[in-house]
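thread: overnight batch results

M.L. [08:02]
morning all. the overnight job finished for the chain we discussed friday. pasting input first so we're all looking at the same thing
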Amino acid sequence: MSIPSLATYGGTLLQPGYPGQIAEGGPTVQRSMINTSATGIDFGVLVGRGAATTGGGTDKCVPIVAGTEIGCGISIRNAAPLIAPPAGGNNSVLYAQNQAVPVLTFGVIWVFAGETVAEGDTALFIVSSQQFGSVQTGALAGTTRIAVPTAIWLDSATVGVLGRVRINASLS
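M.L. [08:03]
and the structure it wrote out:
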């Protein structure tokens, strides 16, 4: 039997992670929030605080659809409770309305870059693409871009490529 050579790695390289996957084994702060919107929430996107419903509570979240919203964390990938894709035939897997959404408020997570970013750049969320960008390489936060307080890129990445973002302080 011949010994495999590691001189060449073959044709396809695997992704380093998946959107919404916790990227390191260090400490994290995670919250379980309920999606109060009829719109589903994808993995690895910034979520906003949902309106309190009868009975109070602050554990509500909604997908970010406007630059005027304030982010409260990044949705964590957890496909275990997602039994079937939503109606519509697009086979997307989302956190549906009234479903618990695990949300990262402190730690390191894999996300898609919506523009070219560099290691150490301040991260922000681009509403139109539902991906993350950078204050340094793009425009400042405004009506289409939401600042993510204390979040920085740990990797350099181009458009549509995964990179790690660290949130250094718990978001409220």
